[in-house]
Design a protein that fits this description.
By secondary structure, the protein is mainly α. The protein contains seven helices and no strands. Helix 1 packs antiparallel against helix 7 (149-165), helix 4 (59-77) packs antiparallel against helix 5 and helix 4 runs antiparallel to helix 7 (149-165). It is globular and about 55 Å long.
């Protein structure tokens, strides 16, 4: 369920991001939109190897921290007053995005036996696909009804809901080393 909400949150801003940027900087809006979309990929790629090496923090705790940080940064994006501030917030968000993605996948991989991992990831990807549809629709409806910033606020709310749901996730058992 957290994967569904996280994916929905990531998609909630997509219907309005170009309009937000056009309001912030009418000249070169398409160029800035491309930058704002791609900057997350850059910071996610930078952070991924480092996030994958973190072993001093329990996985569920790390997952919650990443979700909570992502929620805060997404809400702040709703208040961005310039393209530079939006770019900066999205860049920082990418570090949390890396954590949500990597730790979420590790939690799924460790939640069951190796024989069922394929079906576990298959179900997970199906749920994420539903999140794509739900998030985009929610973001579009919220921004149309209340204003462009509300796509960010609804995204932050979905991440916050995911944070609370993450307390239902059990920490995977430590792997026993063979001697």
């Amino acid at each position: 369920m957290t994967g569904f909400l996280i994916q929905a949150a990531l998609m909630a801003i997509l219907p309005t991001l170009n309009l937000v940027i056009r309001n912030l900087s009418p000249e070169n809006a398409e160029f800035y939109t491309g930058l704002v979309f791609s900057i997350i990929g850059i910071s996610t790629a930078i952070a991924s190897p480092f996030i994958g090496r973190i072993t001093s923090i329990p996985l569920t705790t790390l997952y919650r921290l990443m979700i909570l940080g992502g929620s805060l940064l997404t809400a702040l994006q709703g208040f961005a007053s310039s393209v530079i501030s939006l770019l900066t917030l999205r860049f920082i968000f990418g570090f949390f995005n890396a954590g949500m993605t990597i730790v979420g996948n590790v939690l799924i991989a460790k939640s069951g036996d190796s024989k069922n991992q394929g079906s576990s990831f298959g179900v997970y990807n199906g749920i994420i696909s539903i999140g794509l549809v739900f998030g985009s629709t929610l973001g579009g409806v919220m921004s149309n009804r209340f204003g462009l910033a509300y796509s960010f606020f609804s995204s932050a709310f979905l991440l916050l809901a995911s944070f609370f749901l993450s307390f239902l996730i059990r920490e995977p058992e430590k792997e026993k080393s063979e001697i």
